[in-house]
Amino acid sequence: MEGLWLAALSGLIGGGTLLVGAGVAWFVDIPQRVVAGIMALGAGVLISTLAFELVEEAADDGGLVPTTVGFLGGAILYIVADQLISRPRKRKPVAGVDGDGSANIVARRAGGAGVAGGAGLVIAVGALIDGIPESIVMGLSVLQGGISIPIVAAIAISNFPEGLGSTAALKRGGSSGRYVALLWCGIALVTVVASVLGFVAFQSASPSLIALITTIAAGGLLAMVCNTMIPEAFDEQHALTGLWATIGFLGAFLLHELAG
Fold first, then answer.
1. Can you give the pTM of this predicted structure?
2. Kind and range of the H or E run holding 45
3. How many CB atoms lie within 10 A of CB 189?
4. For labeling, which of 7, 11, 169, 255 is most exposed (least CB within 10 Å)?
5. Helix axes 2-27, 177-201, angle to 10 degrees
6. What distance in Å separates the CA atoms of residue 115 and residue 235, rounded to the nearest whole number?
7. Whole domain around residue 144: which residue ranges?
């Protein structure tokens, strides 16, 4: 029973920072340039996490075949979800009807809000896709001797900018507070359930199956970082995006090394 509660606590900590990031973005008027910097920092953390905590350990424990299949599968799953969500939100340019071009300005603003909302939802979908297998991994780690501090800390740190960046974009896109709250509470709840599931249902799972589950998360993470977080950050931070991402990667790597 203690292990069950530890698994639930792992999922709560990991998914709770999604809610914290979402709450900060919704209630605090953060400049978009700061949000972009945090997203770039989070992208570096995510890349480091998937490289050292997910893919490397999956390959060592489960072998290259399940690692490769899971990694590609996670990326494809995210990209398909991205396309399904983004396609209906694309808007065609509207021709100006006023001599001063004011209709075009309104259309561009409306289109910009739609793009922002679409990007926010795509990041949220990425958080869900990688959050489920990540949480299962946290539950599995409890079986190996309690809460894994490096894994839980890395996931919690990387989830904050996901919640922050997604909610900031959803807010710009005109989403309601109720919608945003239900979205992130639902995703956070899924992470807790998935962590408990990882502890209960995969106690006798083979290393290859665990590697497959783990790398689905990693593939979805990398695709989301490349398709959404870094482009969103680069729009505001430009050349500094690479620096912030590097700092995030280095910080997560040092955490991994010191905890290991």
1. 0.69
2. helix 32-49
3. 13
4. 255
5. 160
6. 13
7. 2-259
